[in-house]
Amino acid sequence: MTTTEAVVFIEGRLGEDNEARIRAIPGVKTEIFTERQALEDRIAEAQVVAGSISPQALARAPQLKWVHSWAAGPDSALYPEMVASPVVLTSSKGNGAIPLAEHAIWLMLTLNRGAMRWVRAQEERRWDRFTHGELNGLTCGIIGLGHSGRDLALKARAFHMTVIGMRQKQSPVPEVDELYPTGRLHEFLGRCDVVVVTAPRTPETTGLLGEAEFRAMKKTALFIVFSRGGIADDDALLRALQEGWIAGAGLDSFGQEPLPTDSPFWTAPNTICTPHNGATTAATRQRGIDIFVENLERFMTGRPLLNVVDKQAGY
């Protein structure tokens, strides 16, 4: 059924051009809020919210039909009251796939080439030549083949890597040379020169990688994660790095964020820590806005929404 009129609350300024695009959609009455509390104070008026609302606000929103999360991973929006609610939840899934894949390639290159040694040498004005690695011929294993995983597969193949993947669905993925089911995790890990986690954190993936899994990897292998912390057990990962079960790690996601100043990850051997920052680009934000605008047009004309979150599955 076509919606003739809707009050749409938006959390945060989107820029004049984007806001004009939204106002031009027939039937949309837009309110833009720079503070969440002000939005929640009037939540009873809204049919649509782009942003996030608390469980307390959700309980006071009798007209609310749809919430769009600006985040690609809607973890924080999946509180019990939202899961139980009939309100449709969508996400900005896919908006950061391109820069996240670039971030993973940068981490691979930096770790594989020992590039931090060059950085230290430059700071000390030392001419330090050494034999380093190359990605050509290595096997990149990707856990999770959504938007970012598939974009990473394309980029890895451009570096002449063999790409193997693991996900629940076993339908072919053109960008991937070979697909493994989750039941063959140890065999998959044992083949990889680089393991990259791009999967969402769900009840099925939380704690997926523990001591046994890191011991199944090659001692020369690198571990990279940019999706969510908690998929790898932090204690097991630290031991793997400190005791040399694996060769190094590039970490953009952690079980606890922000990473505490006294965390041993900061000084773990051959480890690069970045502050969950791999997709923080202007283009990522714009792609998220584009997803919302298209969905708002769909909502107003009664068409199915994109990126609807399966509240039970968690993504």
Fold and architecture overview:
By secondary structure, this protein is an alpha/beta fold. The chain folds into 2 domains: 108 residues, NAD(P)-binding Rossmann-like Domain (Rossmann fold); 177 residues, NAD(P)-binding Rossmann-like Domain (Rossmann fold). It contains 11 helices and 12 strands. A 7-stranded parallel sheet has the order 8-7-6-9-10-11-12, with helices on both faces. Strands 2-1-3-4-5 form a 5-stranded parallel sheet. α5 packs across α7. The radius of gyration is 22 Å and the shape is elongated. It starts with 5 loop residues before the first strand and ends in a 15-residue tail after the last helix. The model has no long low-confidence stretch (mean pLDDT 96).
Low-confidence region ranges:
none
By CATH, the superfamily of the largest domain comes out as NAD(P)-binding Rossmann-like Domain
Average pLDDT: 96
> How big a fraction of the residues is strand?
15-25%
Query: Judging from the principal axes of the Cα atoms, what is the shape?
Result: elongated
Rg computed from alpha carbons, rounded to a whole number of angstroms: 22 Å
Order of the strands making up the biggest sheet: 8-7-6-9-10-11-12
CATH architecture of the largest domain: 3-Layer(aba) Sandwich
